[in-house]
Amino acid sequence: MKALRPLVLVLAATATPLPAAAAEPVQSGDSACVWAATPQPTRAALIAMVARSSLQISDAVSLEQAQGIATACHLPMTGDSARLIAVSLRANALMTYGAEGLKAHGASDAALEAAWDRVSPATRLTFAGAFSEGFRPSEAQLDELGAAGGSLKLDSDVAKAMFFDFILGRAVLARLGRN
In angstroms, rounded to a whole number, what is the distance separating the alpha carbons of residues 30 and 38? Predict the structure, then answer.
């Protein structure tokens, strides 16, 4: 996926560290709760920001909304919880944008699931660190992603970037305890 290499550099340059607690899976469902507790208009705004390559959580989620999400999900408003909320929203927006875009290009849920299954655990773990400083997947891992996406018969660089977003978001969410 040579077209995606510049995206990797952009992600590395705009890293948002995962909460320290995320090295171990957090309570299962926290990241799912964060997305579910986020109002639909805010989720739509986040997904639209992915499309514009300008995903800044603070541009779409106010402090009051973040506090409401934390309350709904029984999370204390600490630094780690605030980062968990930001990372969860960013990863969910990327995954949703990628999945919806790929479906518009003809991919089914089953095809997306099969493509995810083709990504090795080691590559998933690497991509789970996508929001961390120093994120640099190997050439072999990018090639593996290209092969996994190849089953979807992606016909454009835009569709390939959507696949990258889907895998990246899903890998981060898996690290947070949501598959």
Answer: 12
